[in-house]
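Chapter review: from sequence to fold.
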Amino acid sequence: MMKKWILSAGAALALVPATAQTVLTGGGELNPDLKTSVEALKKWQDLRVGMCVHWGPSSLSGKEIGWSRGTSVPVSTYDSLYLRFNPERFDADQWCRLMKRWGMRYLSPTSRHHDGFSIWFSDYSEYDMENTPAKRDLMAEMKAACLSTEHGAARITLSTEGSAPAKANGHGC
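The token string follows.
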């Protein structure tokens, strides 16, 4: 049965013209005009391997990030985790050195978590790194490390577009 299905699928694919162009959309029903250029997609695909980082105060709870608010972590506890978030051992240059060694070519941090916490100094909310004990702009540190010539030809690209409001300080996020 499985062989017949695979052969049928293969035959159907053989009928698709090789020159057919895919329309790349990404806005869904809310933004149907949002399109991704074929060139941009190709550049991203050429990067091949990267690292997506989803990290913030909710990591202190030791629970599923974000979804623990009000379930396994009381709301008042969850909402005050940022007051203890102090990633004092975070070293963006070390991350980039390791990523380069591992063959990774881009870093894609979640700059603003779905719960609203920003790992940068936000002009729009006080729920950000500026109001943690660390008082460090982690996005600025990651950007500087990714753009550093120390990391050589396999420089890591910081990919954050669209993950947070535009900022005057040029983070690109």
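Two observations follow directly from the output. The two ends are 50 Å apart (CA to CA). Strands lie at 50-53, 106-109, 157-158.
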